[in-house]
Amino acid sequence: MSKRPKHKINKQLKPLMVRVDTLTEDPNNERDHSAKNYEAIAGSLDEFGQQTPIAVTAKGVVVKGNGTLVAVREILKWTHIARVVIDITDPVAVRAYGITDNRTGELATWKLQPLQASLLSVRDGGFDLGKLGWDDHDLQPILAATWTKPELSNEPLVDYETIKLTTEQFAIVKGAACKDNDQPIELALVEFIRRHTSDSCGEPEAGAP
Fold this sequence. Notes:
alpha+beta, disordered C terminus
């Protein structure tokens, strides 16, 4: 007598269901899954069920969903999983498809303000945010952030004058800016002005700093 199938698969995916032990992971999978990653995948499947199929070759080698296969087999102990057989037969194209599928997901970034609003809504609805794959120290800065428009200053824009420095002049200014230089930058600039200007400032009076 066979064991009762164990899974949590969307009923619309059941025609795609096969035994877990008929599939194998890609031995050349380019992605490295940590234990935390597997736990997050398993937590999502346990909470929401399998809503999208994994993709495999005609020989049952996973192209998309290696982490999912491991999570259902090793953590959830499912007997079945939903899969689609890709219609790509060229080995090079199969490899390229797997890489592309992983890479395109990495190119997206979070929009933090809408993310915060969604997280707060989910939390206030009674859902455990710990099941979303984030640790508390990752979530707290997002949840605590405030979003305000920057205040525009009414101060007029300063019209700065660009000057060109000789090598010697640049060395004086650079030396004053270095952390290991004991000369205050104000004194260095005074020295710079005294050496390299010919305006009406004149020479400093006796006893002047």
